[in-house]
């Protein structure tokens, strides 16, 4: 079998997750992949995706590798920006509403998809890097718009903390906030909760 050190290195270069095609690119056959699963060296996450058994990848990295078109969303984005202290129970992601709901049914990491029109997936979209893996996330200004849009789906404490943290954040861009609010049709809400306090 291919040198195990090389395989481990390849997994680490891809945030701990490799596709079947990527394993084959480094010279592993389907039989060798199956054998590695049976030996407990790698484990299947979902169809076509594997992780190293003894390597714990960052959850956001795993989600980005499993669902490259998804965007880190709402409470997961709030936690990334340090607006809330509580780690969300599941990773919330924004996805195209035309995508199949069943594709997000995975045991780990737990994900909660929010389905939306594809044009809204580009509004305030940014890319960050964790463990050399590019991860799509909404900007802090767009995230606050989402907090206001989904107010009824968020715990009041999370909602309050997010608004307070955003107002104090020196990295916020108010121009962007109002631009996104216009596109997402929540300009009045932004004015009510944030505009009057700036």
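Q: What amino acid sequence fits the structure above?
A:
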């Amino acid at each position: 079998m291919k040198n195990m050190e090389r395989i481990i290195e390849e997994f680490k270069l891809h945030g701990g997750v490799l596709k079947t095609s990527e394993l084959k690119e480094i010279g592993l056959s389907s039989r060798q992949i199956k054998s590695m699963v049976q030996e407990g060296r790698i484990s299947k996450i979902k169809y076509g995706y594997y992780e190293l058994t003894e390597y714990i990848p960052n959850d956001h990295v795993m989600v980005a590798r499993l669902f490259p078109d998804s965007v880190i969303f709402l409470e997961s984005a709030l936690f990334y920006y340090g607006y809330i202290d509580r780690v969300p129970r599941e990773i919330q992601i924004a996805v195209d509403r035309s995508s199949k709901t069943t594709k997000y049914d995975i045991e780990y990491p737990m994900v909660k998809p929010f389905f939306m029109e594809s044009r809204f997936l580009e509004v305030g979209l940014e890319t960050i890097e964790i463990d050399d893996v590019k991860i799509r996330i909404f900007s802090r200004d767009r995230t606050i718009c989402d907090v206001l849009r989904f107010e009824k789906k968020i715990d009041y404490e999370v909602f309050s903390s997010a608004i307070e943290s955003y107002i104090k954040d020196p990295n916020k861009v108010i121009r962007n906030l109002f631009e996104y609010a216009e596109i997402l049709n929540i300009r009045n809400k932004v004015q009510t909760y944030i505009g009057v306090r700036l």
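Q: And what stands out in the fold?
A: Strands lie at 17-19, 42-46, 49-52, 71-72, 91-96, 111-116, 125-130, 133-138.
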